[in-house]
Each structure stands twice: as structure tokens, then as C-alpha cells.
Amino acid sequence: MGKIIVYEHANFQGYSKEFTRDIANLKDVDWNDCISSVKVIGQPWVAYEHLNYTGQLLVFEEGEHSFVGNQMNDKITSLQMITENLLNPQITLYEHVNYQGKRRVITEPTDLSRGHDNDTTSSHKVQRGVWLLCEHSDGGGFRYIAREHEHLPSYVAINFNDKLSFLRPLLPGRSY
């Protein structure tokens, strides 16, 4: 399925540890708040700022990531592997809560800030894949992972109503 190798310093320096399954609290394995670079083999992983997969998040797709970025450097507390099928992604966005108003089906990375749908989305249904939803068109600000078969009737619940500007499906890793 895949694995993530974490390193205590940037550029894959210092101590390292390999994970092949989710870990809700890196304190349990003496790796809390000390990750600065990662390598991912296979499926993507999501790194979270707090335990139990909460707080700010970063997505790491297959490849080498020599620095996790200033916002998350030495702040990662939980790791979760994406296990869903990521082929043929599809999400439906709705203008209003409870899947009301104008709807739009998305199947590829989309910068909503360049069109009529910027900051107008209030709910979604994920048909296939896993999606990264972002507050800003550069992928910054509040980020949310929308998983396959998730129906989120109101972005108010996650303090994201009318803030979506960019979304993209997560990319599948190679099969091993």
C-alpha cells in the first residue's frame, strides 16, 4: 500500500523512522514535533498538527519532500495514510448548505478564484477519490481533506462556508 519515512531534520538528515500505518499520536513512538522532511512511497499521507488527526494539515504525495515547510516544521503530531482508490476522482460542490443551489461537478484540480464560484461553496458530496480543499488559490489558508463517499451538508460546521477557492484530487502512488 505504501509507507512514509520521516526525518528529524531537513534534507533527510538526522534520525529517521518508517511508518506503514496510521499513527494518532507520535508521542507514543517518541516522534512528536520533530519531523522536518519526509519520503513517501505509494499512497499519499496526511500529516496533522495535533493528535488524532486534527489541526492544520499537510498532504505528502509520493516522492521526496526535503522540507515540510515553516508552518509545520517540528509540529507534526499524527500521520494518516490515504487508503481510498484515487483513480477517476469526482466531487460535487453546492452553492448552499444541504446540497442546495447551483451545483458543479469537478474531476480535476480547479482554481475557483478565477471564475464565478470563488468563495460561494457551502456543501459537497465526494463521489470518488480524496480531495484537498483550500481557502486560498495558492493552496494556503484553511485546508480540508474530503474523502470518498463523504457528504458534508454544511461548511458552517468546519468554519469554511463561502471560503473555498481551490481544490484538487490527491494523486495515487505507484503500486508496489
> What integer value in Å does the Rg equal?
16 Å
**Count of DSSP H/I helices:** 0
Beta-strand fraction estimate: 35-45%
Poorly predicted runs are none
Between the first and last Cα atoms, what is the distance in angstroms?
7 Å
Q: How many strand elements?
A: 15
Please tell me about this protein's structure.
The strands form 4 sheets. A 4-stranded antiparallel β-sheet has the order 2-1-3-6, with no helix packed on it. The protein has 2 domains: 2-81, Gamma-B Crystallin, domain 1, CATH 2.60.20; 90-169, Crystallins (Gamma-B Crystallin, domain 1), CATH 2.60.20. It has no helices and 15 strands. The protein starts with a strand and ends in a 7-residue tail after the last strand. With 176 residues, it is mainly beta.
Summary of the model, kept short:
The chain is mainly β. Helices cover 0% and strands 44% of the residues. β1 and β2 form a beta hairpin.
Can you lay out the helices and strands and say which pair or pack?
Elements: E1 2-9, E2 13-19, E3 37-42, E4 45-50, E5 54-60, E6 63-65, E7 78-81, E8 90-96, E9 100-106, E10 110-111, E11 123-128, E12 131-134, E13 143-146, E14 151-152, E15 166-169
Antiparallel strand pairs: 1-2, 1-3, 3-6, 4-5, 4-7, 8-9, 8-11, 10-15, 11-14, 12-13, 12-15
Descriptive labels:
mainly beta, four-stranded antiparallel β-sheet, Gamma-B Crystallin, domain 1, 0% helix
